[in-house]
Amino acid sequence: MKRIAVMTSGGDAPGMNAAVRAVVRYAVNKGLEIYGIRRGYAGLLDEDFIPLNFASVGGIMEKGGTVLRSSRCPEFVRKETRAEAASILKKHNIEGLIVIGGEGSLHGAMFLEEEQKVPVVGIPGTIDNDIAMTDMSIGVDTCLNTVVDAIQKLKDTASSHERAFIVEVMGRTSGYIATVSGLVTGAEAVVIPEVPVNYEALANKILRERERGKINCIVVVAEGAASAYTVARHLEHRIGYETRITILGHIQRGGSPTAFDRLLASRMGVAAVENLTRGQSFVMMALQGGKIVPVKLDEVLKQKKGLNMELVELAALLS
Ligand code: F6P
């Protein structure tokens, strides 16, 4: 292999730049030519390629977002579009592709190899932590720290005014961010897609806490379970707290990556190049029991990563 390319795709996640840096520097060390594809699959179709070298990725590790930029590319669900992408890669003599992104992006990568015979390696990058077979994806840790910081601040003002805050966090299909941030901030409750919510029981729990002398109340809601407004409507008249709503939104996707995310991204980036150049493609790099290992892309994508219910129980037990 002489020339490979790297792209970031789908929702950005802090640490993607650290992964790009590791891919580029390790590829250069191995004597490869490396191209960056800007704006994910949309950029691939537009032939938006830039040559990268050791120096061009200097100073990007600590940056949030992705310097390669990203996009969601709905057209990539079509086989003809993927065939076009493969012929563009061929035209540019790109022999292998590293895709950093979430589930949709990894699906695109899987089809590129399965149907179009483009060797691909995936790196899981998404704040949602909803990709199977890897303990963590790049961006999850930074996102959690951002959410925790925000909730701590809300607790300060909640206590001063004896209010309840309903905090909506990201997670369309996964309650991971809500559960872990709720657990480590001592929130009264988390409302997540995986567990049906019983507002009566939730309100009674909050009332009991109040009777015990608690002067604030935090409920963390995953966007995929309910909107913060709905939860507030169900709780406000039952709990006797004045209620405020905070929707954290895309602030959860930004910011300088934590040490954990930089390290994970660096390890996965190097391992991705190593696997690709050894001819071990059609894999995603995964973190399993502290080790970075290759796992088959199709295996990953046919599974749905379930939420570890022990975390949900722990959050309930300790709040
Ligand atoms: O997949 C990551 C994620 O941040 C989800 O948590 C969220 O629901 C979604 O992306 C938002 O996507 P967009 O930025 O395209 O609105």
Describe the 3D structure.
The chain has 319 residues and is α/β, with parallel strands linked by helices. 43% of the residues lie in helices and 19% in strands. The protein contains 11 helices and 11 strands. The strands form 2 sheets. It has a 7-stranded mixed β-sheet with strand order 3-2-1-4-5-10-11, with helices on both faces. Helix 7 crosses helix 8. The longest helix has 22 residues. It is elongated, with a radius of gyration of 21 Å. The mean pLDDT is 97. Bound molecules: 6-O-phosphono-beta-D-fructofuranose (F6P). 6-O-phosphono-beta-D-fructofuranose (F6P) binds next to loops.
Strands, helices and their partners?
Elements (H helix, E strand, L loop, with lengths): L2 E7 L6 H14 L3 E5 L2 H6 L3 E4 L26 H13 L4 E6 L1 H12 L5 E5 L15 H22 L1 E7 L6 H10 L3 E3 L7 H13 L5 E6 L5 H12 L2 E6 L11 H19 L5 E6 L2 E6 H5 L7 H10 L1
Parallel strand pairs: 1-2, 1-4, 4-5, 5-10, 6-8, 6-9, 7-8
Antiparallel strand pairs: 2-3, 10-11
Helix pairs in contact: 1-9, 5-6, 6-11, 7-8
Bound molecules: 6-O-phosphono-beta-D-fructofuranose (F6P).
The site of 6-O-phosphono-beta-D-fructofuranose (F6P) has 11 residues, from loops.
